[in-house]
Write a structure and sequence with these properties.
The protein starts with 15 loop residues before the first helix and ends in a 7-residue tail after the last helix. Helix 5 runs antiparallel to helix 12 and helix 9 packs antiparallel against helix 12. It has 15 helices and 2 strands. The protein has a domain of 186 residues: MetI-like fold, CATH 1.10.3720.10. By secondary structure, it is an all-alpha fold. The longest helix is centred in the middle third of the chain and has 30 residues.
Length: 325
């Protein structure tokens, strides 16, 4: 007769279920739980502190300032409610400033992406002096944007600017110090030159971002497309562009953010003038602070709202928030 050993008999080895129950039944002290919960803190504390100090606190302070009333000497006179926003939206120059900001961002980013894509494709090919050309492209990026803007202002000087001297020599500018030589004295030419400078300083970074994407495309993909009989144009639009899409999206997003918040180019070249006819929202906000700090803070809040909307629309359009890609 076979003797059956019961689970609870003395000396019997505990089964798997009983071992699991024994482990799960162990009491973990609250102090140990707290220690485990705080283990990641030393690693994330520096980044969290930086975000709180550089991003969150200024945003909160900006919102608070936009609802305060300030005297002529800059003293805080108490709460102003939403009156600063009401004054801002009553500004006659605001619609033109908003429209000009859209034109500024679309023009600079659009031209920059097209030109940079062409330059990146050129730099992705082998040709004599390619290394020198790549190094030369870094110069506008390495130089200060303020310095670049000032240099272009000197070059456009109506009396002896290099650009006007050249245009005079080829017959486009008839007389120095005349109306057609004062490029920065008229809204449309001034704004066009500012767009040119904006593109000039944005091309280096964008080109290198797209070049990194192009160099990451495997050569086998092009060989397969060639075997399938695809033309160079078809290969570029059906193979190259889809594969560099991540680099292209990053370049567009960073450029939109930088150009929207750009200040030195327009300020150093025209200070938003004549009048406010070349001002964007960033320049308009800066000029408002000279007369009303609260209204300028309200313009900052509007700018911040625009940034949030731009980022959300961009992420939506690029489908970065989906798992399809």
């Amino acid at each position: 007769m076979t003797q059956t050993t019961h689970a609870g008999a003395p000396g019997a080895a505990p089964g798997p279920d009983e071992a699991a129950k024994a482990v799960s039944g162990r009491q973990v002290s609250p102090l140990r739980k707290l220690a485990r919960a705080l283990e990641p803190v030393p690693w994330i504390a520096p980044a969290t502190g930086l975000i709180l100090f550089v991003v969150i606190w200024p945003v909160i302070s900006m919102f608070q300032t936009s609802r305060e009333h300030f005297g002529s000497l800059g003293g805080d006179m108490g709460s102003a409610g939403w009156s600063n926003f009401s004054k801002l939206f009553d500004e006659t120059d605001l619609p033109g400033v908003l429209f000009r900001t859209v034109v500024w961002v679309v023009a600079v980013v659009g031209i920059t992406i097209v030109v940079s894509l062409a330059v990146a494709n050129l730099f992705n090919k082998q040709f004599p002096g390619r290394r020198v050309a790549r190094w030369a492209l870094i110069a506008p990026w390495a130089a200060s944007v303020v310095m670049t803007s000032i240099v272009f202002s000197w070059m456009l000087d109506p009396s002896n600017g290099v650009i006007n001297v050249f245009l005079h020599q080829i017959g486009i500018v008839k007389n120095y110090n005349a109306g057609n030589a004062a490029w920065l004295g008229h809204p449309v030419p001034a704004f066009c030159w500012e767009i040119f400078v904006g593109v000039f300083v944005s091309i280096p970074f964008t080109t290198y971002a797209l070049l990194a994407g192009l160099q990451a495309v495997p050569a086998e993909v092009y060989e397969a497309a060639k075997l399938d009989g695809a033309s160079p144009a078809r290969t570029y639009f059906s193979v190259t562009l889809p594969l560099i899409r991540p680099a292209l999206l990053v370049a567009i997003l960073i450029n939109v953010m930088n150009v929207f918040n750009s200040f030195p180019i327009i300020w150093e070249m025209t200070k938003g003038g004549p009048g406010d006819q070349t001002a964007t929202t960033t320049i308009f906000m800066y000029t408002l602070k000279e007369s009303d700090i609260g209204e300028a803070a309200a313009m900052s809040v509007v700018n911040f709202g625009f940034i949030i909307v731009i980022v959300l629309l961009f992420l939506r359009a690029s489908k970065w928030n989906s798992s399809e890609d």
